[in-house]
Amino acid sequence: MTDHDLDVRHAIAPDQLPLFDTTDLRDRFVVTDLFADGEVRLCYSMADRLVIGGVVPGGKTLELPVPDELRAENFCDRREVGVVNIGEGEATVSCDGEEFKLTNQEVLYISRGTRKVTFAGDTRLYLVSAPAHAEHPTVKVTKDEAAPVALGDIKNSNERTIYKYIHDEGAKSCQLVMGVTVLAEGSMWNTMPAHVHARRSEIYLYFNLPEDHRVVHLMGEPEETRHVILANEDAVISPPWSIHAGMGTAAYTFVWAMAGENTDYADCEQQPITSLR
Ligand SMILES: O=C[C@H](O)[C@@H](O)CC(=O)C(=O)O
Ligand SMILES: [Zn+2]
C-alpha cells in the first residue's frame, strides 16, 4: 500500500452490539472519508472479507493498490471487483490494458486474475471486492441492463428503483452481488420493511445526499436495533444477522453490495415492521 494504511474492520457478533455506544458503533461499522482527491482509499471488512474503496482520479491515472493484508502480487489474484461510477463525469477503467468507459451509475465487473487495474477520469468511483475462487469474464453493465425493479410507494415514502448489476441473473460472479437503489422524489425510506440475509454480509454506500443532510441508518438484530447517522459518501457494514434500512432527511441514492454463500438477490428473510424493536 502507498500513503494510506489499510482500514481493517473486524467481524462483530450480534451479542456485542448492545454494548456499543455511538463511537463504538461508528468505529466498527461506519466508514467515512473513503473519497479523497487523487487517491484510492480502501477499507477491509472481515464481514465476508469484503473490501470497499473510493477512487477520485481528479485528472490523474490511479492504480488499484495491493494492500499488504492481501499477501498477493496483484489485487485480483484471488479476488473479484465491482466498480460503479457514482459521479457525473466519465471514467476510464483499464484492466490489463483493456479500457472500459463508465458513465454515471454504470458498473464494471472485474475478473479474478486481472493483473493491473487503473482508474482515470474526472469523476468518483466506488468499488467492492470479495474473495473469488473462479474466473468470470470482465464485463461492463449499463443502467438499462440492470433490470430496474420498482419497489415501494410514495404514500409510504419508500418509492424506489433497484438496479441489479452483479448477481446470478446479471454479470456473473463468484460471490459478489451489487447494485444501486435510487429513491423517487419525496421518498426517504430504503429497505423498509427490512430484511436480514444470514448467508451474506452487505455494505451500503450512501451518495447523492446534500452535504447538510443525513441518513438515519438502522442496524442490528430485528429485535435489538441501533442506529447510526450517515453523511454523503459514508459506507456502513451490515453483518449477516443485521437489518440494514435507512431514512434520509433528504433524498439520496445508495450502492449495496454483498458476498457470502450465494449470489441469489432474493435469498433474504423479510422482517415484519411490527416485529422490530
Ligand atoms: O439485499 C438487498 C439490499 O439490502 C438492497 O438491495 C435493498 C434495497 O436496495 C432496498 O430495499 O431499497
Ligand atoms: Zn440486504
Relevant terms:
277 residues; mainly beta; Jelly Rolls; seven-stranded mixed beta sheet; seven-stranded antiparallel beta sheet; 24 strands; globular; binds 4-deoxy-L-threo-hex-5-ulosuronic acid; binds zinc ion; metal-binding
Structural summary, described in words:
This protein is mainly beta and 277 residues long. The protein has a single domain (15-275), classed as Jelly Rolls (Sandwich). Helices cover 3% and strands 42% of the residues. The chain contains 1 helix and 24 strands. Strands 1-3-4-11-6-9-12 form a 7-stranded mixed β-sheet, with helices on one face. The radius of gyration is 17 Å and the shape is globular. The N and C termini lie far apart (42 Å). The relative contact order is 0.17. The model has no long low-confidence stretch (mean pLDDT 97). The site of 4-deoxy-L-threo-hex-5-ulosuronic acid has 11 residues, from strand 14 and strand 15.
SSE inventory with pairings:
Blueprint (H helix, E strand, L loop, with lengths): L6 E3 L12 H8 E2 L8 E6 L4 E6 L6 E2 L15 E7 L5 E5 L2 E5 L4 E4 L6 E4 L4 E7 L7 E3 L7 E3 L8 E7 L10 E7 L5 E2 L4 E2 L3 E8 L7 E7 L2 E7 L4 E4 L4 E6 L4 E8 L8 E2 L7
Parallel strand pairs: 1-3
Antiparallel strand pairs: 2-21, 3-4, 4-11, 5-10, 6-9, 6-11, 7-8, 7-10, 9-12, 13-14, 14-15, 15-23, 16-22, 17-24, 18-21, 18-23, 19-20, 19-22
Zinc ion binds next to loops.
What's a concise summary of this model?
By secondary structure, this protein is mainly β. It is 3% helix and 42% strand. The mean pLDDT is 97.
